[in-house]
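Question thread 4412

I'm putting together a teaching handout and wanted feedback from people who do this every day. The idea is simple: show students a protein as raw sequence, then show them the structure tokens that encode its fold, then repeat with a second protein so they can compare. Below is the first pair exactly as I plan to print it.
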Amino acid sequence: MGRPGLGRRQLLGTAGGLAVAASFGFAALGTGADALTSSARTRVRYWNLFSGGDGANMQAMVDAFHAAHPDTDVKASTLTWGDPYYTKLAMAAAGNRAPDLAVMHQGRVTGFAPGRLLDPWDIGKLAEHGVREADFNPTLWKRGVVGGELYALPLDVHVQLNFYRKDVCRKAGLLDADGRLPHAASEDDWFAMLKAARSKLKGGLQTLGMHANDQNFSWWFFVAFYQQLGGGYFDADQTGVVFDTDKATRVLEFLRRHVTDGYAIAGSDDAAMFLAGAPFVWEGDWSVPVYTPAKIDYGATPLPPVFGTPGTHAESHSFVLPHQAGRGGAANEGAYALAAYLVRNAATWAQGGHVPAYLPTFEDPAYTKLSPQREYSQDAMRHLATEPHIWFAGSTGTLSKRVGPLIAGSNLGSTRPDATARAMKSALEALLASKNPMDGKTAAQELKGAGA
């Protein structure tokens, strides 16, 4: 519980994942790989948290970078996803043992930058490598800014999607003339779709997989639908909680109904159910490499806009510069070159399902041919539902650990939705008053210190 499943973290343990690795001409990577040659003059130390299919795609991109920049070698190290990665990165930066370049979920940047564990990007130097703010979604770019400086250079947006089986939905009469699933414009529309699809199910299958008992997925889905209602979390100066318990209750009732009405089976293997014929599953875009090799007829859209305004939960893998005393020199130049190359050549990365952050990639023929990516990518990029921009948020952050179990409990019927909403507000109030262990300041103190 609390961690994405097979699609993202264990892909190379499947036959499909092994095929991905083999297609790039190298074996599965455990703890990292070197692209080192004795003749290279510059060496860049690069930390990331990509395993499975993501790891294979990233290594292919690093290999391509080295082929294009033979004088720069990359020492790429893959660390354990989640808190172990961020703990080690913080310790390395604090102890002046940091790598030259690292990957970070964008939502975690606000927890690291104020503690001087990251160095800001030089916008002019990025421009020299062909990376400019104008080539990114404005919302995405601004989320990497802390105190007026850019700390997170986005590689992608990874979003929660509504995967659907076209064979089942076609039998239920749900597809449009183009063979795609239309957006459900209301709760009634969505549950009508589920009812129609359930009528065509094989025995023992659920209608929707939604990871009902998983704290991370529960939180991510809540973020999406709460934003569709226009809900907020904190005021502008981060001194007060503006969490709307009425809107939150409405979202929690919506999520819970999937379980109480029998559309979702809590604790089921949602991916296996989908592969066996379940019509819908809500899952991250990283599941594309799991479902595509299975040769099933499927599509994917952002989460249904049941509350009127589109919005699907989004995080971003971004590149950061871990703090180094006296950062500069050839290794720093190499870090800029590597990050810019990976961002600008993201069609390979997008094979893993992620939406490229660098907008010109949407015109790359290598990207436009990808399916189902072309069905959901631009729509998802336009309607990003993100966690609050505050130090305790972000992937596997303290916020999801505090409120995720509350939402999962509501999904399973352990608590009433209205009581859960009040408990969530209390948790937000406690977190807002707490201090960031990286610098010993509350969110309001950090915001004031940054001059925002």
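The second pair follows. I'd like the answer to focus on this one:
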Amino acid sequence: MSPASPSRQSAEPQISTTLKWASDGELSALDLERILARLSAVDPAAEALSAQLQPQR
């Protein structure tokens, strides 16, 4: 069997990709924060959006 065979399991742990939604249909705050953090790493516009959504302290 070749190393790229689909029947072999990866040694890497599986990351959950399930998103949670609030009862009002909005994405959960935690999932929104995680998505924006990933986008901010590659897109300056997403970084600006993330800053706008942060609660004022």
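Top answer:
Good format. For the second protein you could add a caption like this: The radius of gyration is 17 Å. The helical segments are 29-40, 44-53.
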